[in-house]
Amino acid sequence: xxxxxxxxxxxxxxxxxxxxxxxxERLSPEINNLIDKNSKIEIIAxxxxxxxxxxxxxxxxxxxxxxxxxxxxxxxxxxxxxxxxTKPIGYSGEVPNLKKAGTNGLTxxxxxxxxxxxxxxxxxxxxxxxxxxxxxxxxxxxxxNLFNSPxxxxxxxxxxxxxxxxxxxxxxxxxxKLKEIPFNGVYKLSPDGNVEVLIKNLTRPNxxxxxxxxxxxxxxxxxxxxxxxxxxxxxxxxxxxxKVFFDGKELAKKDVGLFDGLKVHPTGNIFATGPGGVLVIxxxxxxxxxxxxxxxxxxxxxxxxxxxxxxxxDMFLTRIKIL
Length: 323
What we know:
Helix content is 5%, strand content 46%. The chain is mostly beta strands. It is globular, with a radius of gyration of 18 Å. The termini are far apart.
């Protein structure tokens, strides 16, 4: 443990020499409109247990991301490299949880506040001042039952927060004696504080995103037996017309990784972590390419100018230049 901590400390700076990993699989010429033929997958930081939940903060001019097992959120930018943003974070010991996992998915609300999936504390928290790490609970339960382990989240333009709640943050998953909700849900938190469950029938709801016109909700199902991305029509009353947007069963037979985080590009293309790395999928479900990271990639995020895609790739933080 001491040796690992020393190694991690040595990585709390920018990597002096450029390091690269993997390649871009180009299944259609259309991928060239998003990723230049000369773009490489760059390792910009390393030494993590399991990196997750990246989000770009304009205020900090940095990407923030979680190391779930280590109970820490990091920042990285060009000038200062890698730094601890806050620790411990995600598991406080105040909520029953034998796994003691840290934070997972992160997002930024319209006021610039950091919204955090507290995997271990089984709630979603809000950090209202990124300079002093002032935090409070945004939502802590559903009908007086603790969530399983909030995983990923996204806002719409009206301030509604959509989030997933699989059992990954519980030691025994669905069989954990501390599990209080019988299903693994997808929820909507309204600005007035009302919480409603939208989807109950996904085995492992994980990554979540919304189309640019806010008519479609995408949800990744990280189940070895059913690796798919679902799409739903968004309505004022919830969701309807569930359809399989992308079926990854064949890809999962030959490539490492399951569907996890996903983000929607301004072009409408979906960048979805999954078997092989990060899949690039058109709005019609056509798979046009994969950013093959060689390791399991949990999630991804664009910077505010959409110049780079940042990826949390197992023990690495990686990125690739995009167009």
